[in-house]
Amino acid sequence: MSTRWIEETFHPHWRVALEASEVLHEVKTEHQHLVIFRNETWGTVLMLDGVCQLTTSDEFVYHEMMAHVPLMALEKPKNVLVVGGGDGGVLREVLKHDCVDKATMVEIDRTVIDTALEHYPEIPGAAFDDPRADVVIADGLEYVAKTEEKFDAIIVDSSEPIGPSAVLHTREFFADCKRALAKGGVLVTQNGLPFLFPDHLAGTTRVFASLFKRVAPYMCTQPCYFGGPFALNFATDDKSILNLEQKVLAKRVRKRGISDLKYWTPAVHSAAFALPAYAEAVVTEAIAAAKAGDDSAYASTPAPAPTKLARKTKKKPAEKKPAAKPTRAKSDSQA
User: Fold this and answer.
1) 114 inside domain
2) Is residue 318 part of a domain?
3) Mean pLDDT of 246-274
4) 176 labelled binding-site residue
């Protein structure tokens, strides 16, 4: 039998192909092409419309940096909201903090959870069964707009600002998130690959700078997201939490009994906010624009390839559902 190579077609002028040693699930409709397969290097791989969404080999990078950077910055986060993130990875990391009393995950598509439980259950682990987890199947946009709860941290694990997910990158949505934050709370979202798509980072930074006293993008290296370092964005009204010494962060991780991390460390936490010059220039310009009154959100982008969806896109077709069900450093950038 001939070897099958599945291409990453996210970029218009270059491509990467991953070998599929075994195809676990594949479906192609008039709207999208979903394939889940095994690869000797990457483990289980999820690709949607030619875009690598996650791999079990390196998923810990994204999920740890999405969860532990905001939560370690807070002295004692108790109530956390995750918007999206139906694969359960961010929820898993949030629940490692024993100070968290409740972690609400709002996922619009139940099949995202079902797919994770069937094909890569190691990503959610026991997160969906944790009594502190509140899994809500609903539109995250509407949930945040209507909730009366106050959250110490809101983590937006959404797809890129393309198509239906564009609403989770608007000023209106982020303003609702700010309203739902407790005093001194933190809002974090993903900002894609700034070397290739700087407008994504710029747009979010403009909005955050118009809403919060401090905006501080940070970066990590996500191997399966081909195209350079991956950016996330951090916003808060408590400026002091971005000036925490590494010894404070180390004390918090010990006190919370977290010892199984593969990427986040106090040193990595601090260093992540040190941006390379090309990204710092994007951030500086965006903050200046916000101060000048331009707080427009980045709500759309030209697709770099024929696909209509992009990284961290987690919508799946409802054609197949498994039987299993869950019980389920400082930054110099500031506004």
Assistant:
1) yes
2) no
3) 97
4) no
